[in-house]
């Protein structure tokens, strides 16, 4: 809406420069994203549905897909609860160290996934991690097992919900919450009846983005998984392994599935989002 | 006494918002907290509602010590300047909110909400969302929502501040009539002296975190306790070392009554029905006098006429302290 | 705003650390405590462990590891390519944001979605995607697999959304009247852009550039299939860390990781400073 009026006001004349810019941008995105993306789809279906059928019939692959979904969903649930909670604390409350925490929460966005994996191994590694041996003695294996993969996935997707929810919380302000309190609602009732409905869209975007990010995490999960066939292998690891084992068809088919989910997530968000602005 | 505020103090960092304020607000009346922005009146209201915590002092509501109570336990209705409408709930659900929280039976809620919607004339908007209402309608909804829980006291924070002048005036009349019907103890915050004088039974003037004066509109206007109240409630001009109201001054021409301060008319401005005459007294002081059109015509004066200025009997005056304070207080021009 | 702003990289949260807010209550204090314990276990302690492990060999040990010929080459390649990619992004990202905000044409919505693809696409798939157009059997007849160009291209792909998505909302909120005023004062379109529009976009561009740089420096997944990870030629820092981990040499892995963490931390500090500056300007 905003850009329409600005476009109308600032681009009154039809200048050739405008078409040049448009062409440059379109070509850039075409060669960098659109065409390569299309080729993955084409390669996946080079032999019709054979590749897709093959991987879906492979119990190792289906196990990997299931594991990917389980890990991603767990990570999203954890990050949503944590993200909504910490967003409310950051926006509505004042406490020492708030600024530092605020900055540190963005850290996972700029840390290499390999470093994430290394960091988790150094603390939770079963052999000589800081806490790992103790936890393993208590029967909880983290590294080279599913809990570590969940931790790695939670780490990389940590700020996504927060970054969606915080601006909305600020925009909504706290007057509605105060009004609810003055009408007799306690903290939980206020959260459930007033705060949550008003940040609903932010939470939904955050969840979709986290889901996309979590389903596709590769580096960090690779480091902590040990990549045990049929046990700790996720879909992204399948792509790598199939490609390196010269099963390009299988790699492309799995990649196609992952890309499909990713693009679907983007489309869901882009379709939903303008509604809120209306 | 319905609300007893005793020695309430509140600081925000170094800023003293309230300095040992004590006020008694009478039951069943409509009381205005009047003062300039940043003077502490909203903070005081929010402390009464429990939305803000006092650093020191005590708040009692209908004999109950409310100082430590959270807002949801105080049974106050609070109306915000920006309405604080629950955007995702219909008008009906907004009004019903407090009753739903109190787990009242469904049909009772429906009945009560219908009554209140009728009271605020929003029956036909019951199923709309707040976004589909005008500002004035939203504020009436907020009022109905606050009244729904049958609050002990109704608190309104600059309730008409976000509305345009015409709607503001309508709602002001409407609030007065509503209060005459409902009789709930009501406190509202305003920086508009006209609003306070017109609507309130009782006015508490607050400035710089302190109470300047408490009284009925007449008391405040006729017997201002100090220069601040005098300046804040209406236009003032200085005559000698006295602050007076320009419309309490009378002019006479040479040859007539010889009483009063002699001077010369330096400027005549007409603003609608009112004529503003600027007189420079012989001692150099500039005095503003406002006259009605008829008074002005009867005097037959114009620029440079020699006149005498006299204060009408029984007019309120206060002693002007420093000229510096003059610039800070609302000037003559600003109050028109 | 019609942009989908999928990428969480706008200088958001500039108000989220604004002073003010309520003092903690018992429940919120408990919540903060739980959140901090979780955040420490997940992020702070593990990252501290990296720093501690790296420092175990002392300064000389650390220095020896990161100046090892092969390691230094990976750091040089990573940082150098990331800088180059960031420069390209500053130009192209601003340009793309400009077109998306100021132009209207059929298919713009599709471009909006394309911008976000690199963010949502798994990195390993991103590598495969690029390989299918620029690798062996390319329909374009080029093959850049296992070259430094591949590293450049992979970085370019994964960092595409950052500057676009930081600049876009700022550009959309710019008051067109300011530009009209400049035009009415006789400023040409180019001068208006350079002297009026660009300065207001600079903080957003800087924030996006910082994130884009950090992201590129830490990139791993898209390179696995694309760059061949040839030592001294196409091996990047993350790959080097991984091979140290796999060779059971956590000390040297941690040493290189500390270099990357220092870069991340610097980026966070830069972002915080930018947000503060924007906030002051109002």
From TrEMBL, chain A:
This is Sulfate ABC transporter. PROSITE patterns: ABC_TM1 (PS50928). It is a multi-pass membrane protein. GO terms for molecular function: ABC-type sulfate transporter activity. Part of the ABC transporter complex CysAWTP (TC 3.A.1.6.1) involved in sulfate/thiosulfate import. Probably responsible for the translocation of the substrate across the membrane. It comes from Micromonospora craterilacus. The chain crosses the membrane at residues 20-38, 67-91, 103-126, 138-162, 198-216, 251-272. InterPro entries: MetI-like, MetI-like_sf, Sulph_transpt2. Residues 65-273 form the ABC transmembrane type-1 domain. Pfam families: BPD_transp_1. The keyword Transport applies. The complex is composed of two ATP-binding proteins (CysA), two transmembrane proteins (CysT and CysW) and a solute-binding protein (CysP). It comes from the Bacteria. Its main location: membrane. One of its GO terms (cellular component) is plasma membrane. Keywords: Membrane, Sulfate transport, Transmembrane, Transmembrane helix, Transport. It is found in: Membrane. The keyword Lyase does not apply.
From TrEMBL, chain B:
This is ABC-type quaternary amine transporter. Residues 314-336 are annotated as: Disordered. Residues 3-233 form the ABC transporter domain. GO terms for molecular function: ABC-type quaternary ammonium compound transporting activity; ABC-type sulfate transporter activity; ATP binding; ATP hydrolysis activity. Gene3D superfamilies: 2.40.50.100, P-loop containing nucleotide triphosphate hydrolases. Keywords: ATP-binding, Cell membrane, Membrane, Nucleotide-binding, Sulfate transport, Translocase, Transport. Its EC number is 7.6.2.9. CDD domains: ABC_CysA_sulfate_importer (cd03296). NCBIfam families: 3a0106s01. GO terms for cellular component: ATP-binding cassette (ABC) transporter complex. The keyword Disulfide bond does not apply. It comes from Micromonospora craterilacus. InterPro entries: AAA+_ATPase, ABC_SmlMolc_Importer, ABC_transporter-like_ATP-bd, ABC_transporter-like_CS, Mo/tungstate-bd_C_term_dom, P-loop_NTPase, Sulph_transpt1, TOBE-like.
Automatic annotation (TrEMBL), chain C:
One of its GO terms (cellular component) is plasma membrane. It comes from the Bacteria. The chain crosses the membrane at residues 30-54, 74-101, 113-134, 140-164, 196-217, 253-274. Residues 75-271 form the ABC transmembrane type-1 domain. Coiled coil: none annotated. It is a multi-pass membrane protein. NCBIfam families: 3a0106s02, permease_CysT. Part of the ABC transporter complex (TC 3.A.1.6.1) involved in sulfate/thiosulfate import. Part of the ABC transporter complex CysAWTP (TC 3.A.1.6.1) involved in sulfate/thiosulfate import. Probably responsible for the translocation of the substrate across the membrane. This is Sulfate transport system permease protein CysT. It comes from Micromonospora craterilacus.
């Amino acid at each position: 809406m905003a850009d329409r009026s600005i476009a109308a006001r600032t681009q009154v004349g039809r200048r050739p420069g405008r078409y040049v810019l448009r062409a440059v941008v379109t070509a850039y995105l075409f060669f960098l994203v659109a065409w390569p993306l299309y080729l993955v789809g084409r390669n996946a279906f080079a032999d019709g549905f054979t590749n897709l059928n093959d991987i879906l019939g492979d119990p190792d692959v289906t196990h990997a897909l299931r594991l990917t979904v389980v890990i991603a969903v767990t990570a999203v649930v954890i990050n949503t609860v944590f993200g909504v909670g910490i967003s409310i604390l950051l926006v509505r409350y004042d406490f020492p160290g708030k600024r530092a925490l605020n900055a540190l929460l963005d850290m996972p966005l700029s840390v290499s996934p390999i470093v994430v994996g290394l960091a988790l191994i150094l603390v939770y590694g079963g052999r000589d991690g800081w806490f790992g041996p103790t936890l393993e003695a208590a029967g909880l294996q983290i590294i080279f097992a599913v809990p570590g993969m969940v931790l790695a996935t939670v780490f990389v997707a940590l700020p996504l919900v927060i970054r969606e929810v915080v601006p909305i919380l600020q925009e909504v302000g706290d007057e509605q919450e105060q009004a609810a309190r003055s009408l007799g609602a306690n903290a939980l009732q206020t959260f459930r009846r007033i705060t949550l409905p008003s940040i609903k869209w932010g939470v939904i975007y955050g969840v979709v983005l986290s889901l996309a990010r979590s389903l596709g995490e590769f580096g960090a999960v690779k480091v902590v998984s040990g990549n045990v066939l049929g046990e700790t292998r996720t879909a992204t690891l399948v792509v790598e392994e199939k490609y390196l084992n010269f099963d390009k068809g299988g790699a492309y088919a799995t990649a196609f599935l992952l890309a499909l989910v990713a693009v679907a997530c983007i489309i869901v968000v882009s379709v939903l989002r303008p509604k809120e602005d209306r | 006494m319905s609300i007893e505020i005793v020695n309430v103090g509140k600081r925000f960092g170094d800023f003293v918002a309230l300095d040992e304020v004590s006020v008694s607000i009478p039951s069943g009346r409509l009381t205005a907290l009047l003062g300039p922005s940043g003077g502490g009146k909203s903070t005081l209201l929010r402390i009464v509602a429990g939305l803000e915590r006092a650093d020191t002092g005590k708040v009692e509501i209908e004999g109950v010590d409310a100082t430590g109570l959270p807002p949801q336990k105080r049974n106050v209705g609070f109306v915000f300047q920006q309405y604080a409408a629950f955007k995702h709930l219909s008008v009906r659900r907004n009004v019903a909110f407090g009753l739903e929280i109190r787990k009242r039976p469904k049909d009772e809620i429906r009945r009560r909400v219908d009554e209140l919607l009728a009271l605020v004339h929003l029956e036909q908007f019951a199923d709309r969302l707040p976004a589909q209402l005008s500002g004035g309608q939203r504020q009436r909804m907020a009022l109905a929502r606050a009244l729904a829980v049958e609050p002990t006291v109704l608190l309104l924070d600059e309730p008409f501040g976000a509305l345009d002048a015409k709607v503001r005036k309508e709602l002001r009349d409407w609030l007065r009539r509503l209060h005459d019907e409902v009789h709930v103890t009501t406190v509202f915050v305003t920086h508009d002296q006209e609003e306070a004088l017109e609507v309130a039974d009782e006015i508490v003037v607050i400035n710089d975190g302190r109470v300047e004066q408490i009284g009925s509109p007449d008391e405040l206007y006729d017997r201002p306790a100090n220069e601040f109240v005098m300046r804040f409630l209406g236009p003032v001009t200085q005559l000698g070392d006295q602050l007076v109201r320009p419309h309490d001054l009378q002019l006479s021409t040479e040859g007539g009554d010889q009483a009063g301060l002699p001077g010369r008319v330096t400027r005549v401005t007409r603003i609608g029905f009112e004529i503003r005459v600027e007189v420079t007294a012989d001692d150099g002081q500039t005095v503003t006098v406002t006259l009605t059109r008829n008074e002005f015509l009867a005097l037959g004066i114009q620029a440079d006429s020699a006149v005498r200025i006299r204060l009408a009997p029984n007019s309120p005056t206060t002693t002007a302290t420093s000229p510096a304070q003059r610039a800070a207080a609302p000037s003559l021009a600003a109050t028109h | 705003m019609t942009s989908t702003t999928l990428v969480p990289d706008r200088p958001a949260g500039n108000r989220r650390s604004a002073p003010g807010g309520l003092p903690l209550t018992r429940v919120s204090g408990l919540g903060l405590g739980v959140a901090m314990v979780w955040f420490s276990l997940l992020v702070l302690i593990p990252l501290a462990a990296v720093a501690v492990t790296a420092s175990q060999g002392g300064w000389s040990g650390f220095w020896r590891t990161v100046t090892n010929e092969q390691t230094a080459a990976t750091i040089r390649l990573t940082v150098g390519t990331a800088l180059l990619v960031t420069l390209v992004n500053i130009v192209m990202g601003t340009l793309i944001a400009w077109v998306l905000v100021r132009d209207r044409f059929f298919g713009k919505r599709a471009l909006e979605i394309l911008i976000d693809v690199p963010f949502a696409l798994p990195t390993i798939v991103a590598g495969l995607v690029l390989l299918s157009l620029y690798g062996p059997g390319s329909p374009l007849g080029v093959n850049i697999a296992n070259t430094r160009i591949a590293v450049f291209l992979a970085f370019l792909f994964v960092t595409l959304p950052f500057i676009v998505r930081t600049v876009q909302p700022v550009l959309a909120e710019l008051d067109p009247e300011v530009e009209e005023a400049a035009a009415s004062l006789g400023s040409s379109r180019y001068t208006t852009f350079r002297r009026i529009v660009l300065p207001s976009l600079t903080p957003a561009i800087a924030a996006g550039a910082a994130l884009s740089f950090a992201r590129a420096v830490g990139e791993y997944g898209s390179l696995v299939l694309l760059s061949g990870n040839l030592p001294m030629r196409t091996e990047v820092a993350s790959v080097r860390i991984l091979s140290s981990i796999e060779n059971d040499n956590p000390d040297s892995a941690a040493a290189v990781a500390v270099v990357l963490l220092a870069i991340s931390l610097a980026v966070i500090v830069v972002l915080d400073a930018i947000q503060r500056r924007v906030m002051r300007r109002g």
